[in-house]
Amino acid sequence: MKKVLLASLLALGVSTTSCLGPDNTYHSIKNWNAELSEQDWVNEIVFLGLNIIPVYGIAQFLDILIFNTIGYWGDNPISDPGPFPGFPKGDTK
Fold this sequence. Notes:
The protein is mainly α. It has one domain. Helices cover 61% and strands 0% of the residues. The protein has 4 helices and no strands. The protein is flat and about 55 Å long. 9% of the residues are buried.
């Protein structure tokens, strides 16, 4: 029981960090996917693939635990990817 409680507290501690950061790794991958093709269906297939193989999740995890922390104490090693370029047809409504 103590191990379950300890594991739950550790998971809660990691998932509720108050250090907000720019999440440059996650946004770099998201921007790359948006600019990959002019065809929406290609971007959607890549998006699904990057979620099935948890690339987005791993990038977010690395941002939270490593890169945002480094950026808080110094210079973030991942450069700012810039604003989200949007979707080719602008069909986000």
